[in-house]
Amino acid sequence: MPAIANYRKHLEEIALLSSAHALLEWDQETHIPDKGIQARSRVIGRISRRVFELTTSPDLGNLLEELRTDGALSQAERASVREVGRQYRRRKAIPADEFEAFTTTCSQAQAAWAKAREASDFQAFLPHLEKVVDYQRRFADYYGYTEHPYDALLEDYEPGMTLAQLEGIMQPLRDRLAPFIGRLADEGTPPDPSPLQGDFRLDKQRALARAALEFIQYDFECGALDDVEHPFTIAIAYGDVRVTNAYKQDRLGYGLFGALHEGGHGLYHQGMPEELFTLRLEEGSSAGIDEAQALIIENQLGRGLPFWKAFYPTAVQHFPELAAHSPEELYRATNLAEPSMIRIEADEVTYNLHIMLRTELESGLIAGDIRPAELPRLWNEAMERYLGIVPQSDAEGVLQDVHWSFGYYGYFPSYMLGSLYAAQFHQAMLDTVPDLDASLATGDFAPMLDWLRGNVHQHGAVYLPGELVEQATGSTLDSSYFLDYIEEKFSAIYRMDRN
Amino acid sequence: MPAIANYRKHLEEIALLSSAHALLEWDQETHIPDKGIQARSRVIGRISRRVFELTTSPDLGNLLEELRTDGALSQAERASVREVGRQYRRRKAIPADEFEAFTTTCSQAQAAWAKAREASDFQAFLPHLEKVVDYQRRFADYYGYTEHPYDALLEDYEPGMTLAQLEGIMQPLRDRLAPFIGRLADEGTPPDPSPLQGDFRLDKQRALARAALEFIQYDFECGALDDVEHPFTIAIAYGDVRVTNAYKQDRLGYGLFGALHEGGHGLYHQGMPEELFTLRLEEGSSAGIDEAQALIIENQLGRGLPFWKAFYPTAVQHFPELAAHSPEELYRATNLAEPSMIRIEADEVTYNLHIMLRTELESGLIAGDIRPAELPRLWNEAMERYLGIVPQSDAEGVLQDVHWSFGYYGYFPSYMLGSLYAAQFHQAMLDTVPDLDASLATGDFAPMLDWLRGNVHQHGAVYLPGELVEQATGSTLDSSYFLDYIEEKFSAIYRMDRN
């Protein structure tokens, strides 16, 4: 049997078990009864171990080596060898015992973090954090890097990205965002958020979320919408890409934009051909590109005026009280921008400052320039510098995110990159589809979806994110698309001259 | 490592994969989107194959052989060796190629059956049926038997049961049921079923089904209730035993009794200790014992007057229109008994005649005394003899059930045995808990549940069904409990002297 056929057979085995694994995880967050969780963790552990064995097996290593120089492979097959090969090398890079000890450390650190946040007690979390950071610094050495150890960790989430590149991307954000936020506060007229605040029955919110997903042509024959505490999207298999969502009774936007966000992820993975699932390319080009698919639907679409013009009758049908406001008022109500303590509640304008703060701190931790004990002070200083506000407690400061407790270092930049990619994709879309907003305002989502399908979704992880963005937009990643978008949109909403 | 520890480790591997398999199956019937079904079948096939390998591995064979004579085993461990050993021997008995060909044949036969039933065309199904019957006859020889080849197939569903024993059980049913049905028709005053017919909103029916499950103390922290087309109960793991249900808008009883039936299965598997799951004894003593747990809740409880007295306020709360009737009228409305063509719509009195007919025909097929081509004629003759009615088409006759198309021969008797066990358990319960009905009438289900837990549920498959029934009721299986129950209950409902 030729190597590529063997390789595909090996991937099929991984794909089948990964699909079972994905369903077990999905069910654990959606439908599992409380008393079933204990047994479930053992089932998931067993399937994970088998997938780990298959993704690090010597047979796979030999096939990857042989295929690396096979000139007869298709483009997708070459990408598969690249992606599966990266995962293989990274998983082999860490000694098995050390990785297992790290997993245990993270599990304890996560529990300690939850208690420490509850008590707003950073010192209780610190010894755990120090251990996790030590592991991550060692792992960066195992993985290897050219310029900066943080690059070794970024590679998991944004292949090809380096801290130096991130610096180049972040500098314009530093230069323009904070001053713009100052102008919004000093010169702007903030929009009134109250039309989307009140008392909104959850079953009706669920129906509205479903209608929003139908608007964006999320395919329910190939998906599902379920309630969870922390929303996520999961590709269980080709033809089975499910979204989840959460709702708050007093804020309609929470569940609606949550649904659009997850729906954006859903469109990405529903838009990939079966061949990409077969070749393990269905996770997408990078965490940042995946996030961009969610953000462009949540923000550029969902917090945009054309959407509110089109979706207005549906929204009023589900919540007749909204008829007291015009589509423009509802659009404005979704776009209040002001400095706040908590990242996940931040608006489009301030969100990236939260991410930059984290990126600076975690890259410093990994380099050894920052000690974990210094984090609370450095966090608060950066909040003051970027947003002009200072947390009153570590719970609303350095302890707010779970990521650092379970070893997700290098992930935060994906959120920022997602917003930058989204703005750049959106501008490219507007350039090639000039009547995009007019179509959207009549409820026709097809032109937007066609652009996303053609330029992003159908490619899965065939291209590295840098290649993808250049191919889709004609230029490398550039923060100015995002900054222009933010300044233009929010200057209008806040009724200011743009400058 | 001692053999028992090795054995338990081997079982754990089977249990973990079987749990994943169960969730994949559950999801396939409840939540999977249409386009995900194709990929799912491959995932299920892969996990099934691995479970099959593990349950037939030479290592397991050696362990079973060694443990068969190990005097230090606990009672549950001995039962495990017996049950896992039976499955091992039966799976090894069929040559792998032949079993695979049989699976393909069944898959085609099932598709052919569905079309044939649609068209009421037995001849189109006949060639498939002949093949399936041939396989089953060969399999009976492979499995081996002492008296009758049908015994070899019964063993899968009702270990220890033989056709000769079934004959002894069925004869009193033949002698007493048909005459009693005649008396009901000639001398009885049928109850009015109309109170439970009408237009019942499905979301309210779901809520009522949930309330019924709460009445019987089905544990939702250890389970779930979901919609499906064909209801079933599934033990995904210890702490995770889910029921499913279906509803009809025009008949309240359909969904309510369906929920109680599945809830009865659910109580059985929720009532087994974790050790039994560990030892693969959680499937229960037999299909008949499992069915009895469902039927005693559906019929002895749910179609009984004490339940309707207690459940009346809940039923009225969900469907205020029911307040137009007394609890007694609702109780009577659930107990119309009359000959009908379709087994799954038959009442408590006539149901077993449908089963006896099938048992006679399928045992004749397996013995070679009946040729498949003769079935339509023999079916209609038996319907005339037992129920006094004759199907107008094969669709409402010999083609109505799916079982024979996918090789479930020897399963039908479980339905009948379930009703006989249920009546016998119920009488034993009444004998030891004299105020049982008084408790139920006040909404206190605990005495009934305690009896079931103590005498049946907690034992799982530790005892063979024959042992279990004798231990729980003090006598071997005896049809007269069922017949007495039916005659007493329905004589009263039909306002006749008992004879």
Can you describe what's shown?
- By secondary structure, chain A is mainly α.
- Chain A is globular and about 65 Å long.
- In chain A, 45% of the residues are buried.
- The first copy, chain A, has two domains: 1-93, no CATH class; 142-499, Neurolysin, domain 3.
- In chain A, a hairpin with a 2-residue loop joins strand 2 and strand 3.
- The first copy, chain A, has a three-stranded mixed sheet with strand order 1-3-2.
- Chain A has 21 helices and three strands.
- In chain A, helix 5 (96-119) packs antiparallel against helix 6, helix 8 (163-187) packs parallel to helix 21 and helix 10 packs across helix 12 (287-301).
- The interface between A and B is large, with 36 and 36 residues.
Q: What is shown here, in short?
A:
The structure is a homodimer of 499-residue chains. With 499 residues, chain A is mainly alpha-helical. Chain A contains 21 helices and three strands.
Keywords:
homodimer; 499 residues; mainly alpha; Neurolysin, domain 3; 2 domains; three-stranded mixed beta sheet; 3% strand
Work out the helix count of chain A: 21
Q: Please estimate the helix content of chain A.
A: 55-70%
Quaternary state of this entry equals homodimer
CATH architecture of the largest domain in chain A: Orthogonal Bundle
Order of helices and strands of chain A: HHHHHHHHHEEEHHHHHHHHHHHH
Return the CATH class of the largest domain in chain A: Mainly Alpha
Radius of gyration of chain A: 23 Å
Main β-sheet description of chain A: 3 strands, mixed
Average pLDDT number of chain A: 96
Please provide the count of β strands of chain A.
Answer: 3
The N- to C-terminal Cα distance of chain A equals 66 Å
Indicate how many domains the architecture of chain A comprises.
2
Poorly predicted tracts of residues of chain A: none
CATH topology of the largest domain in chain A: Neurolysin, domain 3
| Net shape of chain A | globular
